[in-house]
Amino acid sequence: MSIITNINKAFDHRIRLGIMSILMVNEYADFKMLKELLEVTDGNLASHTKALEKVAYITVEKQFIGRKPNTRYATTNLGRAAFKKHIEALEKLINKQ
């Protein structure tokens, strides 16, 4: 088995890695929070959250707070498991001598 077998293509991009990292330590994060923490454009963030939603690693909840739309994201059990496996694979790769 290759040492990169468990490296997940869904987390290849640094923005997706950032989104998942934030969501792993927070119950949820809204669009504004992710955008500010990752310092990305609206379009860039939207495309990466959509990619993670498509593989069922995150859930998206749209609601209104007052009159303002609010979109918030959370990890799914599948997403949490996949991300943990990905991080473990990276650690093994880094520690490989």
Describe this structure in words.
The structure is a single chain. This protein has 4 helices and 3 strands; from the N terminus they run αβααββα. It has 97 residues and is an alpha+beta fold. The relative contact order is 0.21. The chain has a single domain, classed as Winged helix-like DNA-binding domain superfamily/Winged helix DNA-binding domain (Arc Repressor Mutant, subunit A). 54% of the residues lie in helices and 19% in strands.
CATH architecture: Orthogonal Bundle
The CATH first-level class comes to Mainly Alpha
**Spatial strand order of the main sheet:** 1-3-2
CATH topology: Arc Repressor Mutant, subunit A
Question: How much is the average pLDDT?
Answer: 93
Poorly predicted runs are: none
Described by strand count, sense and barrel closure, the largest sheet is:
3 strands, antiparallel
The structural class is alpha+beta
- By oligomeric state, this entry counts as single chain
Give the CA-based shape: elongated
Task: List how many beta strands DSSP finds.
Answer: 3
Radius of gyration: 15 Å
User: Total domains, how many?
Assistant: 1
Q: Level of helix content?
A: 40-55%
Element pattern in H and E: HEHHEEH
Give the DSSP E fraction (strand runs of 2 or more residues). Answer: 15-25%
